[in-house]
Amino acid sequence: MKSRLQTLWDQVSPEGGPCPQPNPWGVRRRVDAALDQKPRAARLWRKLKLAALCAAALVLLTGAAAVTEMVLAPPTYNVLSAFFQGDAAPWESLMDFQPVSVGDDDYTLTVTSTVADKSTLFYTLTIEAHSDEAWEELRKQISENFYALFSFRSHGSLSTDGEVDPGSRTCYISVSTERGWGSSAGIRLNLMEEGKELRFSYRPVSDLKLDIGAEGQGTGGWAWPDMAGPVTLERLTLSPLTLEAEYTTGDSELFPVLYFLWDDGTVSDLDSLKGGTGHGSGHGANGVTKMTKSYSFPAVQDLSQLEAVVFEGMAYPLDKGEPYEVDMEVLTTREPAS
Amino acid sequence: MDERALVKKLNKGSRSALDQAIEHYTPYVGAVVLRALAGRACREDVEELCADVFVALWTHAGELNPDQGVRPWLAAVARNKAVDWLRCQRPGVPIPEDAPDLSPGPEELAQRREQSARLWAAVDGLEEPDRTLFVRYYYEGDKLKTIAAELGLSQTAAKQRLFRGRKALKAALKGLEIP
Lengths: 338, 179
Known about the structure:
By secondary structure, chain A is α+β, with helices and mostly antiparallel strands. Chain A has helices spanning 4-12, 24-35, 40-61, 79-83, 132-145; strands at 100-103, 107-116, 120-129, 150-152, 158-165, 170-178, 184-189, 198-201, 208-220, 224-238, 242-249, 255-256, 258-262, 266-269, 278-285, 288-296, 306-311, 314-317, 324-325, 332-333.
């Protein structure tokens, strides 16, 4: 991190190299690891089994068929593996595995894992059908009208993905959605009886805000490669999951041209850091739009290794130290995570 | 940051309050650790010790007194953890030959610790108020305006002292030897 101490270190220490200043992100990761030591996968599996038993008990009490053969999600299926590439194990402390279920005679809907930050909520669901008839109805809806399957108590854009396991009559679905205020969300499976809605809470991970306040170039990215124009970047919010930019522009398709400068001296461009989901909103007048747009990363990012975000040739250190000029020509491009 | 409000949240077991404390007080706790270790630590050492301090903060969150704030508590625990760490330092365990080489090697870590100790010794060798100015500005991350006011300096004078101090440190580090 280009902290004040690193700046001093660079200026006065003949040997250079990394200074001993601790990085809050690094400390946070160690604290999370110490406080959440139990193996997450094992906990998920155990809790899911418990949820299955509870669901079975509920069904028995209501007089419907028992669901003793229910097989739930494999322990490795979680929200990080659903949305992010690479090994999710080092980041499991970011996730929450408190399964919450709602059920009726035909289905049980369970939120199995969540992870969120300031801008985005990601979560995984299972839908278990309790009969062959219910399973056939669910499969029909998935193939013919997937997006009518759910009602969401959230706003903004939404993306979902899923797979089915006929053997266990279970459907696994992953959802990402723009976060609103608060730290709870709701979802309803429209095949269930009226009034059955699943409400659940989540714990957003910490983020880091960088006030930029600079003018520079924007681009349309891969979607509009020929588009370019000026933007004024006001603020960036970074978490291990997403990057959010607040900026003004004459064209809402533009996004600031950003680079990530890592502490090993390599640099990544924004396109290599954009993942599968993104959302944004804007409002404005007189041809100027104030935008807030965010993109998820393709893999969870270790921000303790990120020194600065570069915009228009200036590096803005994550420790909020003084911005400094960088020569992009001499920096090596970091290989994208595979 | 309102320390009293933060401690009250910690008293109630708020994990987000712990996150806030980590973000806000890591530079301060790191500075206390470095001071207790006479600077002889690399970033990995300091982060590990800081994490121990914040885990302890979480463990004892219910016992904190909102009227006393959290800084004195953090400083006391950080000093103790650093002293314990010094006592427990043992030669490193041999690394298996087939282990992936992901972290700095023992030689590099030793070199970083020595560099850190040199800089700390040089800063510690500055005269007051420059020593306090450097520790608080560069190590603890306090605002220059606040430090200058508490030291009875104008901001311009504080900046001049930082400029002159950096030149003095640079010169000192060229010839300084650690005993």
